[in-house]
Amino acid sequence: MFTLVLNLILSITSVQEINKNENVMKFELVKLPYAVDSLEPVISRQTIEFHHGKHLQTYVNNLNNLIQGTKFENVDLETIVREADGAIFNNAGQILNHNLYFTQFTPNGGGKPSGSLATAIDAAYGSFENFRKEFETAGTGLFGSGWVWLAKDKDGKLSITKEVNAGNPVTKGLKPLLGFDVWEHAYYLDYQNRRGDHLKELWKIVDWKAVEARY
Ligand code: MN
Q: 5 C-alpha to center of ligand 1: Å?
């Protein structure tokens, strides 16, 4: 009985401690704009569950712990990615990367971009087909873990950037528009070592309306 009462008192104390910190900003796991199995067969339900539910959730938990008591405690994600280094940069970069990644797909995706983005792609790469080829080449040619991005500068000019590990074009003053994750966790369950095949398939689920909105 004594132990029960003691445990009760201890648990009440720890709840109060959590409440005291309520004003501290917490990053949250981005919500998927589609069902976990709806991107199949391009990305399986199992890959989405691990990638979004485990890998990304871990980055979110890590960052929330790491920023406590630092100057990044109440700072927005992009600013953290631009200014931090080490573990804080790695976890913040991966949250920013995956937030963009998971919200650029749709089960009804594919096709081609339209409007001013289509015009800019034609101007920079000659054609959409040629852009796609260069993007895939960048992704397959990246050694180790990282990302390939379509990004724009302040004048709207497009470029393809290769970023290792948690890199994001914002650190180069560019705005990321479309990002393919080439970490093995993004494709290994479905494609094993065939990164190139995975990148080719991803075009089928790109939500060009979402990408155009970023441009
Ligand atoms: Mn990933």
A: 45
Please name each of the domains of the chain with its CATH number. Answer: 2-25+44-102 (1.10.287.990), 115-214 (3.55.40.20)
Q: 127 by DSSP, 3-state: which?
A: coil
Q: Where are the alpha helices (DSSP H) in the chain?
A: 2-20, 45-50, 57-66, 77-83, 86-102, 115-125, 128-141, 188-191, 195-202, 208-214
HEC sequence for 96-112: HHHHHHHCCECCCCCCC
CA 51 – ligand 1 centroid, Å: 6
pLDDT in tens, 157-169: 999 999 999 999 9
Distance 6 CA to ligand 1 centre (A): 44
User: pTM, whole model, 2 decimals?
Assistant: 0.89
Ligand 1 center to 79 CA (angstroms): 21
Assigned token pair, 110:
């594919």
